[in-house]
Amino acid sequence: MVGTDRTGLRPVASSTTLHTPHGQPTRTCVGCRGTDSRSALLRVVAETDETGAIRLTPDLRRCLPGRGAWLHPTGDCLEQALRRRAFGRALRVSAAPDPAAVTAYVQDLGTTTSQAVHEKQPPSA
Fold first, then answer.
1. How many other CB atoms sit within 10 Å of the CB of residue 104?
2. PANTHER family given for it (predicted)?
């Protein structure tokens, strides 16, 4: 589906209509700026705790309320997003959010993945 610009004269592709070749919606990673299917990305939301501090929370089921940012669940993309302060812009929060929960999730996921790879390799003789 194609929409039009503000003047109504030029056709433009709507970001909500972008799909993968298999028909799945695509999203942009806030770290590497690459596009991928929703299933390949981690949705991250900003939540405010009782003290008023903003923290990033991984939305594993993709159903938490509020604005979401999408991230490849890799250490490289997380590092790039934090360095560029992309979460604050994508989630439209004024203060710098605390990335501890997302960092722990990505590190745990990386550890689990690397352990699975090592378990699948045959032992050296």
1. 11
2. BLL0784 PROTEIN, YLXR DOMAIN-CONTAINING PROTEIN
Domain ranges of the chain: 27-117
Listed in sequence order, the residues at least 6 apart from 105 whose beta carbon sits closer than 8 Å to its beta carbon are: 42, 58, 73
Q: What's the pTM?
A: 0.73
Question: 21-72, pLDDT tens digit by residue?
Answer: 677 889 999 999 999 999 999 999 999 999 999 999 999 999 999 999 999 9
Tokens in use for 80? 């790039």
- Confirm if 101 and 56 have CB atoms less than 8 A apart: yes
Q: Of the candidates 88, 91, 103, which has an alpha carbon nearest to the alpha carbon of residue 66?
A: 91
CATH code, residues 27-117: 3.30.1230.10
Q: What is the number of other CB atoms lying within 10 angstroms of the CB of residue 75?
A: 14
| Spatial contact of 69 and 44, defined as CB atoms under 8 Å apart | yes
